[in-house]
From TrEMBL:
Annotated catalytic residues: 185, 192
Pfam family of the protein (one): 6PGD
PANTHER family xrefs: 6-PHOSPHOGLUCONATE DEHYDROGENASE (PTHR11811)
Subunit structure: Homodimer.
Name assigned to this protein: 6-phosphogluconate dehydrogenase, decarboxylating
Amino acid sequence: MKKNNLSDFGLIGLAVMGSNLARNVESRGFSVSVYNRSFDKTEHFLQEFKGNFKGFESLQKFVKSLNRPRKIMIMVAAGDPVDAVIQSLLPFLQKGDIIIDGGNSYYKDTQRREAALKEKGILFMGCGVSGGEEGALHGPSLMPGGSKEAWKAVKPILSKIAARDFSGGACVAHIGNDAAGHYVKMVHNGIEYAVMQFMAETYEILRTVYKLSSGDIAKIFQKYNKGKLQSFLFEIAVPVLTKKDDIDKKSPYLVYHILDKASQKGTGKWASLDALDRGVTISTITEAVFARFTSSEKDLRVSLSQMYASKKKIKAVSRKKFEKHLENALYAAMISSYAQGYHLISKTAKEEGWKIDMKEVSRIWEGGCIIRAELLHVLNQAYQKTKNRSQHLFALPSIAGIMKKNIQDLRFLVGNMSENGVSLPAFSSALYYYEYMTAAHMPANFIQGLRDYFGAHTYERDDKPGIYHTQWE
Ligand SMILES: NC(=O)c1ccc[n+]([C@@H]2O[C@H](COP(=O)([O-])OP(=O)(O)OC[C@H]3O[C@@H](n4cnc5c(N)ncnc54)[C@H](OP(=O)(O)O)[C@@H]3O)[C@@H](O)[C@H]2O)c1
């Protein structure tokens, strides 16, 4: 904090995220200049929030109001608006100034922007921000990637505004070069899709097989939230499931009237497409994306449901016993989905030349972000004991212990509920991922034989090196 009339930090984009982040930075003792394309939002912001803020209608004056090296965070809609803002800033910036894109930008855009700005001597960081509106104001989880020099300059500010981890440290770390931060945020969102799909499948089992009301299901989430499944998403399940309906007073819960079509903004799809390109399995995340697509086919589903009678639901075990199976199955499935996301990050990091420490990623996800959970601390501690911080989660001894203890419950859940006609795309794929990843043998030998038969695609043998082709008939 320099003692002159210039601001410590600049923020462009005063929608929900930007205005809350600006307030967060200011509340930690920094002076903040703000700018928004439509000036009325800037005026409104300055009227509503009193403090060490300066607002500008002219971008040039905004830039001039900042201490050097200038630290400017952009919080605008992802895509072309980010390029538009960067282009309009360029004439006023000087070498060594820093731009931080805190939006949900596609990581390849971040790579392109970082390379182009480096040539001009401008330091660019792509920074994943998670925690929504509340997080932005009180402490988000921050995933900055890009120039190390820029990181050194912004670290004092980002460390103060970030959420706290389980040991009281700041939920922020330099993730890696160029787009590493935005990549990690994309996978974070993918895991978020998977966790929410597990929760939705849990809800559906309890609603249809055990015939529980939304209020009773909320009690189960509340109970789970006190144990190993403690997490922000389980915590908010309770108000979402118990909120009364203001419009239909006869309906006990609002959730009964919410249309069963889930939307998305695309980060889960990006993660899935990238995993397909890189040849890495993140089937649970992708199943969660597909489940949202299928949910959107409401009219077709309704008409087909009239042709296909639904299967009669049969309870296999008492509710009390089932709740225990379900808790353990959820735990194993969650770890499986994290293992998939972490493996994607580690493989990409290797290909892109980023050095990503998965212990640090787990630590900065302990607080502030949407997937914050007790489990993240377990993952953090599991990596603590190894020097190889990009190892597959299943290879860590403490995680292997947890998986072995809980996997039978996941097998039971998938088998039993499939018989009951409940769709479990996320639970099933989490189980199959585990089964295949921990299997010394897969039936891919048969696939190779078939491919060689119809297309002379050749195969390798398990007893001798070389490439083989067989005349099968
Ligand atoms: N909402 C969340 O919970 C959340 C969480 C994490 C990350 N994010 C990410 O954070 C970023 C900001 O999110 P948000 O929800 O606060 O805002 P948003 O609705 O995504 O974007 C609105 C902001 O972008 C500005 N903008 C749009 N087009 C522009 C252009 N061509 N040039 C200059 N400015 C332009 C708008 O300015 P005007 O007022 O002039 O239109 C406004 O300030 C997004 O990338 C979002 O994905 C959001």
